[in-house]
Design goal:
Two copies of one chain form a homodimer. With 119 residues, chain A is mainly alpha-helical. The first copy, chain A, has a single domain, classed as Arc Repressor Mutant, subunit A, CATH 1.10.10.10. Helices cover 57% and strands 12% of the residues of chain A. The longest helix of chain A has 14 residues. The first copy, chain A, is elongated. The first copy, chain A, binds a DNA duplex (30 and 30 nucleotides) through helix 5.
Chain lengths: 119, 119
DNA sequence: ACAACAAATGAATAAATGTTCATATGTAGA
DNA sequence: TCTACATATGAACATTTATTCATTTGTTGT
C-alpha cells in the first residue's frame, strides 16, 4: 500500500514542531488500520441496509434477501463479513438462521453517520 | 449493482408481517446509499490517518505527506475526496494550503468507531 | 517575465471488493 | 436413508479504488 517517504517540499518538513506533536498523539498505525477496516464494513449499501433492517429485530437470510432484492448468496456472503466483524450474531432454529445486531455500537455508528448526511 | 429479485425460499417470504414492518421503517434507498458512501470515506487507512492528524489542528499537504509516508500526490488525491465529502475544509496562505476538519461530526464518528474496536 | 516551489490533476496500473452461478453443507420430515 | 429446503461456500468475473509518475496550475520573490 505504501512505498517510501515522500520528497515533497524541500524545506523538508514545513512545521516540524506541529508534526512532532501530531505524531506523538496519533494512535498506532495498527489501530488506525483496524478502524478503517471497521468503517469499510459500513461502506457498502447492501450491508448498511442489512444493518438498518436488523435494527428492527432479528431476520432470517431469506427475509433479508427478499428485502434487498439481491441473491440469497450475496446476502449470505455479506452476513459472513458482518459476522466476522462482530457486528451481527445469529441463532439457528431448525433450518432457518436468524441474524440480529451484536450490540448497540452499530446503532450509534449508523446514527452518527446519518447526522452528517442530513445537513 | 443489483440485478433482479431473488427466488430464494419458495415459501416466498418467511415472515411477511415482520418484513412489511421493516420495509416501512427503512430509510429510502438513496439515503442508505449516501450513508454507505460516507462510511466508505472512512474506510481507508490513509484517510483515517489524515482525519486523525487534523484533529490536532490544521496541517498543510506537505506535513501530511511527511506524516503518512506517502507521495504528496496521494495525499492530495485523498484530500480531494475528503473535501468533496465536506469532511475537511482548507484555507490558502501564500503557496501552502492548510487543511482542517470541516466540523465536529468527524470526531464523533471516529470515536464511535474506536469504541467498537476497543473491546 | 521568469524561476522556484506547493499543491492539484490526469493517465496508467495493481489490488481489493461485490456479485452471480454452481455446488456443498446441514437440518427436518417421510 | 432419501428428499426438500435454508444457508454457506468457492470460483469467476466485472467494477471500483488507491497509488505512483508525469505534468500542470497557482503563487511568491526577483
Amino acid at each position: 500500500m505504501e512505498k517510501e517517504a515522500a520528497p515533497c517540499c524541500q524545506e523538508k518538513e514545513i512545521h516540524p514542531e506541529r508534526l512532532e506533536r501530531v505524531r506523538s498523539l496519533l494512535p498506532p498505525d495498527e489501530e488506525l488500520y483496524d478502524l478503517a477496516e471497521l468503517f469499510k464494513i459500513f461502506g457498502d449499501s447492501t450491508r448498511v441496509k442489512i444493518l438498518y433492517a436488523l435494527l428492527e429485530g432479528e431476520l432470517c437470510v431469506c427475509d433479508l434477501a427478499g428485502l434487498m432484492e439481491v441473491t440469497q448468496s450475496a446476502v449470505s456472503h455479506q452476513l459472513r463479513v458482518l459476522k466476522n466483524s462482530k457486528l451481527v450474531k445469529f441463532r439457528r432454529e431448525g433450518k432457518t438462521i436468524y441474524y440480529s445486531l451484536a450490540d448497540g455500537h452499530v446503532e450509534s455508528i449508523l446514527n452518527q453517520g446519518m447526522e452528517h448526511i442530513e445537513e
